[in-house]
């Protein structure tokens, strides 16, 4: 199975609304791996890898986020899957 990897920068009201925990839960449900972390500028970074359909489903979900989030933009960049982390693990940093 080919692995797809993306770095997503999520902007809006995305910190302090359980965005990281919700993203981790959704990623694990989809069988993705990688990490999610808050950035100093108020955005959330999601580094995700997995089957292309699963990664794309997670990216679509990032536009919604958990109920308290208000996402205004999701920037998506292609990355090398080798830089993402350990398969079957999705961490909050």
In terms of DSSP E residues, the strand content is 35-45%
Work out the number of β strands.
5
CATH architecture: 2-Layer Sandwich
Weakly predicted, low-confidence segments: none
Radius of gyration: 12 Å
Helix content: 10-25%
Mean pLDDT: 95
* Tally of domains: 1
Structural class: alpha+beta
Tell me the distance between the termini. 27 Å
Secondary structure blueprint with pairings:
Layout: E1 4-13, H1 19-30, E2 33-38, E3 44-50, H2 52-62, E4 70-78, E5 90-92
Parallel strand pairs: 2-5
Antiparallel strand pairs: 1-3, 1-4, 2-3
Please describe what this structure looks like.
- By secondary structure, the chain is α+β, with helices and mostly antiparallel strands.
- It has a single domain, classed as Alpha-Beta Plaits (2-Layer Sandwich).
- The protein has two helices and five strands, in the order E-H-E-E-H-E-E.
- The protein has helices spanning 19-30, 52-62; strands at 4-13, 33-38, 44-50, 70-78, 90-92.
- Strands 4-1-3-2-5 form a five-stranded mixed sheet.
- A hairpin with a 5-residue loop joins strand 2 and strand 3 (44-50).
- The model has no long low-confidence stretch (mean pLDDT 95).
């Amino acid at each position: 199975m080919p692995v797809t990897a993306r770095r997503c920068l999520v902007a809006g009201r995305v910190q302090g609304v359980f965005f990281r925990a919700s993203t981790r839960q959704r990623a694990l449900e989809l069988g993705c791996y990688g990490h999610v972390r808050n950035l100093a500028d108020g955005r959330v970074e999601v580094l995700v890898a997995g089957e292309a359909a699963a990664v794309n489903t997670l990216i679509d979900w990032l536009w919604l986020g958990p109920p308290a989030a208000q996402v205004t933009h999701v920037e998506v960049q292609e990355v090398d899957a080798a830089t993402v982390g350990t398969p079957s693990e999705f961490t909050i940093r």
